[in-house]
């Protein structure tokens, strides 16, 4: 809604209420403009439309893929979006990722935990709400500067500048973008999944990612010991999430169905099957074991099922878990993905053990034989050793071409000795092109990094601590942080303003007029950064 329209509407409303005479319509209109989204559901509906439009655009042109970084705090998400707007002029096709791994490691009241669904489930919607609180504050912060500039232009009688600023205010692009939110394996049964999904959607989530692991055995996608569930159990949770979206009026909410079957060799349950070839029978066909001819081959405690017309004594571990056949992971992934898309999921997530476009493409091509518009969300995981992986991929490609590789040791390609070699440079080029190439070749609609800001926080803190507590002293902060903030135009150098001091000062004037006691006067040391 244009600012001028709101101004007229509010002026009329205030005029009808004489006791409100101390309220200036300009202030009310300005505050309304700086608070575009009133609830989390407003955000979920708005961002769901964005995702659906982006998905349709990708179907027409694979270069229109989307990206996100995982953020573990509202401030980190806010600064990410401010940076994107500063460098690229728009947030289009850039999202946020909410990582269950980082919630467990950084946001649990129990303290740092592994990614095994042990953290409080309420931590997830709480972080979604926090992220959007900070993104909405970024809108208010940016618009506040525009309104201050508008006031100055009007006071100076510069109508052309005032008109330009009004256009910027009316066409302001919000920092609010879609969040792909990790619900792990649903934190319990389908009812528990539904209840948590509702909380996440009410907090603003338009996209929920759920995985096919057992809730109480859930492991990080890059750890061993993963245990999957039969399709019927997983599809019930997909239905629970869809119904949560529909109940709350987010009719185009997005569900990402993640399969961990590529690295999961275990199942907790044998699927229920009613007839040969049904979904339960297909799931059970991957179970490892021995075919037997008679009851004499059954020992005490053995589990035997009829599979493919024969009796199968299923291999079971001491833990009670059942084993899948070695090498069956890719076939199970394809079945999982097709089944999920045919039963309500919108996007797929295939958790792999390495970033290899050929491997991903091979599975996606098989899926697309049945569901032609299948699309992936892909984890560009920090659990991969990207440098070593791509150097080895180049090495293997060159070996297949018959190229002389005597200057390289495949097992030691991580060494800095290879950084400035032909192989090292080409591997870096392949890494830089990975998202573009995988979007084109392997159906990846959304590229994310799950926990990059966990690593950047550790790295930057290490660099500062090394210098500050060493010989550099204060220069470590000045040269390594503040000077770079100033020269790179990072808004946090004026940290009082970034935290809302200017907004607060303006509100004081709105509330108390000339009696307002403002923080931004001549004695505020932030004035040292005014002209940079």
TrEMBL record:
The keyword Lyase applies. Can also use Mn(2+) ion. The keyword Magnesium applies. InterPro entries: ICL/PEPM (IPR039556), Isocitrate_lyase (IPR006254), Pyrv/PenolPyrv_kinase-like_dom (IPR015813), Pyrv_kinase-like_dom_sf (IPR040442). The active site is at 220 (proton acceptor). GO terms for molecular function: isocitrate lyase activity; metal ion binding. Pfam families: ICL. Signal peptide: none annotated. Its cofactor is Mg(2+). SUPFAM superfamilies: Phosphoenolpyruvate/pyruvate domain. It catalyses: D-threo-isocitrate = glyoxylate + succinate. PANTHER family: BIFUNCTIONAL GLYOXYLATE CYCLE PROTEIN, ISOCITRATE LYASE/MALATE SYNTHASE. This is Isocitrate lyase.
């Amino acid at each position: 809604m244009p600012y001028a329209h709101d101004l007229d509407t509010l002026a009329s409303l205030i005029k009808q209420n004489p006791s409100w005479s101390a309220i200036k319509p300009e202030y009310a209109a300005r505050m309304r403009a700086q608070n575009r989204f009133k609830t989390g559901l407003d955000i979920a509906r708005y961002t769901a439309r964005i995702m659906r439009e982006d998905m349709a655009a990708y179907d027409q042109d694979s270069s229109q893929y989307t990206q996100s970084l995982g953020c573990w705090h509202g401030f980190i998400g806010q600064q990410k979006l401010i940076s994107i707007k500063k460098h690229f002029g728009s947030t289009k096709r850039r999202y946020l990722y909410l990582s269950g791994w980082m919630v467990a490691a950084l946001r649990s009241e129990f303290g740092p935990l592994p990614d095994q669904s042990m953290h409080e489930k309420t931590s997830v919607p709480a972080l979604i709400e926090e992220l959007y609180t900070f993104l909405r504050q970024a809108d208010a912060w940016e618009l506040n500067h525009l309104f201050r500039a508008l006031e100055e232009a009007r006071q100076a009688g510069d109508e052309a500048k005032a008109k330009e600023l009004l256009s910027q205010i009316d066409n302001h692009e919000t920092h609010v973008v879609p969040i792909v939110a990790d619900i792990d394996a649903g934190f319990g049964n389908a009812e528990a999944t539904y209840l948590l999904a509702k909380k996440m959607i009410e907090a603003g989530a338009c996209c929920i990612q759920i995985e096919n692991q057992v809730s109480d055995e859930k492991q990080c996608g890059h750890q061993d010991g993963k245990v999957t569930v039969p399709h019927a159990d997983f599809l019930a949770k997909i239905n629970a999430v869809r119904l949560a979206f529909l109940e709350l009026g987010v009719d185009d909410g997005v569900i990402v169905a993640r399969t961990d079957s590529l690295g999961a060799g275990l199942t907790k349950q044998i699927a229920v099957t009613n007839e040969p070839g049904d979904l339960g029978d297909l799931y059970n066909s991957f179970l490892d074991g021995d075919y037997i001819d008679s009851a004499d081959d059954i020992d005490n405690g053995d589990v035997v099922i009829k599979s493919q017309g024969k009796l199968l004594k299923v291999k079971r571990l001491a833990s009670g878990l059942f084993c899948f056949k070695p090498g069956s992971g890719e076939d199970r992934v394809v079945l999982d993905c097709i089944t999920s898309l045919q039963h309500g999921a919108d996007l797929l997530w295939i958790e792999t053990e390495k970033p290899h476009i050929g491997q991903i493409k091979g599975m996606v091509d098989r899926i697309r034989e049945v569901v032609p518009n299948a699309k992936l969300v892909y984890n560009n995981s920090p659990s991969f050793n990207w440098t070593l992986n791509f150097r080895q991929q180049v090495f293997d490609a060159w070996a297949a071409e018959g190229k002389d590789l005597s200057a390289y040791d495949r097992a030691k390609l991580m060494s800095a000795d290879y950084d400035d070699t032909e192989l090292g440079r080409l591997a870096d080029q392949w890494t830089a092109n990975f998202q573009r190439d995988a979007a084109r070749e392997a159906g990846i609609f959304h590229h994310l990094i799950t926990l990059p800001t966990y690593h950047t926080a550790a790295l930057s803190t290490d660099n500062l601590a090394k210098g500050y507590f060493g010989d550099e002293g204060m220069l470590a902060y000045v040269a390594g942080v503040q000077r770079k903030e100033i020269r790179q135009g990072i808004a946090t150098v004026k940290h009082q303003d970034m935290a809302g001091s200017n907004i607060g000062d303006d509100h004081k004037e709105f509330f108390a007029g000339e009696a307002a006691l403002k923080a931004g006067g001549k004695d505020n040391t932030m004035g040292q950064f005014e002209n940079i």
